[in-house]
Amino acid sequence: MIYKVGKKTYSGVPVNFNEVVRYAGAKRADENLKNLIESCARECEREKAVNYAVCFTETPLSLKGDSADFSAFTLKSGNLVTAMRGAESALIFACTVGMGIDRLIKKYSEINPTRALIFQALGAERVETFTDFFIADYEKTHGVKLSPRFSAGYGDLPLAAQKDVFSLLNPQKYLGLTLNDSLLMSPSKSVTAFAGVNGDCANIGYCGDCEEKECVYRR
Predict the structure, then answer these.
(1) How many CB atoms lie within 10 A of CB 162?
(2) CA torsion through residues 171, 172, 175, 177, sign
(3) pLDDT tens series, the chain, 219 aa
(4) Cα–Cα distance measured from residue 123 to residue 13, given in angstroms and rounded to the nearest whole number
(5) CA-CA distance, 38 to 21, in Å (whole number)?
């Protein structure tokens, strides 16, 4: 079966300053760090270094034992099955913020390692924030509730599952996103993931209030 893959681009995704600080490995931001992050964010904007794009498809989903059957492929992962429990179908997607920030990281790694570190942190925050932004938009647009995203390499889902995701979505065609033999993506600030559609977790989005401390939905 051939699945229709959609593509969307976005703009105006707000920066989560506290997350940039966290990805930079700092416990708090003093004035110098704050100014440096703001300077890097301005440079990203000036250089148009961040471009938000996603490709995605929704597939049937059948769960049995530790196997998740997406019709196009089947993955064995007890953690993934638990995360998808009760879902009617699965959203499979790839998000990227493009090559621009990779170029800035490479540039400053050679001339200003501190600035390169901030661009690394900013890039990580950008793709994570964008991914959450896309999920919220998909829920609103399609009138569904998605389980927290689950990526290859989480829990007992092997990183090799990336090959199945890339085979299904063909993100090189839609996003210019590639996967090398070591299963590393380029652009590096990219995310692929699965999310269950209308699953069973009643506390999605409210993990801090939930007593299920070992639940794989917890983030």
Answers:
(1) 18
(2) positive
(3) 678 999 999 999 999 999 999 999 999 999 999 999 999 999 999 999 999 999 999 999 999 999 999 999 999 999 999 999 999 899 999 999 999 999 999 999 999 999 999 999 999 999 999 999 999 999 999 999 999 999 999 999 999 999 999 999 999 999 999 999 999 999 999 999 999 998 775 444 445 545 555 555 555
(4) 13
(5) 11
Beta bridge partners, 52, equal 10
Q: How far is 51 from 189, CA to CA, in rounded Å? A: 11
Q: What is the pTM of this model?
A: 0.90
For residue 156, give Cα distances in angstroms to 93, 150, 163, 215, 217: 20, 11, 16, 14, 14
Please state the separation of Cα 116 from the chain's center in Å.
21
Distance of CA 156 to the CA centre of its chain: 18
